[in-house]
Amino acid sequence: MNPPISDQCMGNVFAALMANWPLEETINYKDFVEKLRELISLLNDDYVKKAFPNGWILRRMKNDVGRDDKKSSRRRIFHISGCCGLPFYEADFGWGKPNWVTFLQANNAGDNIFVNLIDTCDGKGVEAWVAMSKEEMLKFEQDSQVIAYASFNQIA
């Protein structure tokens, strides 16, 4: 950001990036990661100046989600949020530091996928809170590329 923000600064920082795929189209990991990298690279000073004048980002998100796709009348939303590196486990509001920090997660994702990333309490790993349809979750939990790096603890 320009001007730079202090490392000790924390507040309401939010940016929405949307990638659209027809619901019927299968997305492989390589294409998905390439699209995410492309979208993240767009987050720069120019984007922020254009996206946040007069606080209109929420209206824009609503319009982007509601817009009809020419190839498909249904949309799939992949929401990913990352809070890695933020010192949540150092916060003490008077009753001690937290043992575990979590996110409220959608329990009925439908066709959509929600992922929240946060550091583990020991700072040596990352928790990924994932919500998707039951059918997709079964496939996800059996994917060899996912199993190689993850352990599963189903909450709901």
UniProtKB/TrEMBL annotation:
Q: Which residues form a coiled coil?
A: none
Q: Determine the domain of life of the protein's source.
A: Eukaryota
Against InterPro entries, the record matches this protein to: CAT-like_dom_sf
Keyword Acyltransferase attached: yes
Q: What keywords are assigned to this protein?
A: Acyltransferase, Transferase
By sequence similarity, the record places it as follows: Belongs to the plant acyltransferase family.
PANTHER family attached here? BAHD ACYLTRANSFERASE (PTHR31623:SF28), F21J9.9 (PTHR31623)
Record-given protein name: Vinorine synthase-like
Q: Which organism is it from?
A: Acer saccharum (Sugar maple)
